[in-house]
Design brief:
alpha/beta, Aldehyde Dehydrogenase, Chain A, domain 2, 7-stranded mixed sheet, 6-stranded mixed sheet, 16 helices, globular
């Protein structure tokens, strides 16, 4: 068997050599208090990239202390000055774009074009967008009618305090930016717990942000296991809010753990999003949209369009177009510019996804393509061929469960009402797609779908201005947009007696 070997680009070597001191408290990088380390590997080759610090409760305590101290000054900085810092961080991300994209690709496996044009580029845009908000975050004056005398009542938006951000491995830099930029814009300080699988880009972001002028203690990072560092952050009484993206199971654990302290929560959890193709759609565009909807980032996307509902009249045509393209997707190392799809994040994730493929076959779905690990040079990584199932029934696990891998389940439908009903018959409600050229149908179906985002004739579009989050078991609260910013504030009503 030939194993793929990839040279680590020299621009990231010094950072990787230094990664074991990966906890950032104030402006200081340090090892874990108890000295443990976690190996972080390239998922395409299994090669060790670095050992990161295995932080725990003592490290979280120190990080929260630093964040609380910094909060006193950061919240009082003028909105313009705070905004200026965020804009400088945005510029610094752009200046370090190449290095950040390489780190993201090495650590997560995604193709470098995706890291560059999606993860890193959007991260910079997010910091810039929220940098612009600091000077617009105002309150209201309210027309009150007191029983006695007169009063002027106004509201102001105040920060919460220390925000704990717990982020997953699928878009490490971008989702960290989703949480940190609005939290900091509103005057909070933060402790970030990246995924044990992908801590590198978040650490480099923090260094870059400090160099760009972010004051010490405003952003602290504790790397480590979810069950240690993550749990300590959730349990810490000095943390005012947890903003989490990850599995619904961990989300539930956070809700339970925060019941005592009544911490505020934003939870962006799993999904099983329906992508619906009507017979009046542009078939070629819909097939492309379906492919992008499921194979972007190896399908490890919370809003992946993993249930493709196709009208019976166009079903075979759409499936043929998807199959033809899926079979040509080039798997490989993300740093290879020919690569269109990288590996899954870990052996555990690959095993989980393969378990769903096996269940689909056993349940009687038809495997149209993929479903196997590629042999040869890719055998050392966690690769899975792009996989498409047809003849999927609603009750099969490949139609109900979040697979989080490159596995598309195609389901046939006969009419609009049925498509909407079946699309909504899911515990999740993160996103949905609609492909139609009928304007009335587009708006009608968008209105009826139970999902936090509906894309019509497009899929997987994200913008800093557009709120993103779920209905039902996909979570609550929103990332991005004004709504996410408000989620990092609390409202104070001030009454002034005028008599
Ligand atoms: P998790 O939900 O466990 O991981 C997300 C984040 O939560 C990570 O930083 C993780 O840390 C942390 N975490 C884990 N346990 C705790 C805890 N007890 N307290 C605090 N933080 C914790 O997802 P997994 O990585 O285990 O992936 C499992 C499945 O979850 C996937 O197959 C997929 O279906 C789904 N998922 C969904 C995502 C989404 O965007 N909706 C993102 C990631 C996963 P650490 O990594 O160190 O354990």
């Amino acid at each position: 068997m030939t194993m793929m070997s990839v040279e680590v680009p020299p621009e990231v070597r010094p950072f990787l050599d230094d990664a074991s001191a990966s906890i950032v408290i104030g402006a200081t990088k340090t090892a874990a208090a108890e000295g443990g380390e976690i190996p972080t590997t390239d998922p395409a080759t299994g090669t060790l990239l670095a050992n990161i610090a295995a932080g725990g409760k003592a490290d979280v305590d120190r990080a929260v202390d630093a964040a609380r101290k910094a909060f006193a000054q950061w919240r009082r900085l003028s909105p313009a000055a705070r905004g200026r810092v965020l804009l400088d961080v945005a510029d610094a991300i752009d200046e370090h774009a190449e290095e950040l994209a390489i780190l993201e690709t090495l650590d997560n496996g995604k193709p470098l074009t995706e890291s560059t044009y999606l993860d890193v580029s959007l991260s910079a845009q997010i910091w810039r967008y929220f940098g612009g908000w600091t000077t617009k975050l105002g309150g209201q004056t309210l027309p009150v009618s007191p029983a006695v005398g007169e009063a002027l009542v106004y509201t102001q938006r105040e920060p919460l305090g220390v925000v704990g951000a717990i982020v997953p491995w699928n878009f490490p830099l971008m989702i960290a930016s989703w949480k940190l930029a609005p939290a900091l814009a509103a005057g909070n300080t933060a402790v970030l717990k990246p995924s044990e699988f992908t801590s590198l880009s978040a650490l480099r972001l923090t260094e870059v942000a400090l160099e760009a002028g972010l004051p010490a203690g405003v952003l602290n990072v504790v790397t480590g296991l979810g069950s240690d560092a993550g749990q300590a952050l959730i349990d810490h009484p000095g943390v005012a809010k947890i903003s989490f993206t990850g599995s619904t199971e961990t989300g539930r654990r956070i809700v339970t753990a925060s019941a005592g302290s009544l911490k505020k929560l934003t939870l962006e959890l799993g999904g099983k999003s329906a992508n619906i193709v009507f017979p009046d759609a542009d078939i070629e565009a819909a097939a492309q949209g379906a492919l992008n909807g499921i194979f972007l980032n190896q399908g490890q996307v919370c809003c992946a369009g993993s249930r493709l509902f196709v009208h019976r009249d166009i079903h075979d045509e759409v499936v043929a177009a998807i199959q033809a393209e899926a079979e040509t997707i080039r798997l490989g190392h993300g740093l290879d510019e020919e690569t269109q799809m990288g590996p899954l994040i870990s052996a555990r994730q690959l095993e989980r996804v393969e378990g769903f493929v096996g269940a689909g076959i056993r349940d009687g779905a038809a495997l149209v393509c993929g479903g196997r690990q590629p042999a040869g040079a890719l055998a050392g990584g966690h690769f899975l061929e792009p996989t498409v199932f047809t003849d999927v029934r609603d009750e099969m696990s490949i139609a109900t469960d979040e697979i989080f891998g490159p596995v598309l389940s195609v389901l046939k439908f006969d009419d609009e009402h049925e498509a909407v009903r079946r699309a909504n018959a899911s515990a999740y409600g993160l996103a949905a797609g609609v492909w139609t050229n009928d304007l009335k149908r587009a708006h009608r179906v968008a209105r009826e779908l139970e999902a936090g985002t509906v894309w019509v004739n497009m899929y997987n579009m994200i913008d800093p201005a557009a709120p993103f989050g779920g209905y039902k078991s996909s979570g609550y609260g929103r990332d991005l947009g004004e709504e996410s910013l408000l989620g990092y504030t609390q409202t104070k009503s001030v009454w002034i007696g005028l008599d």
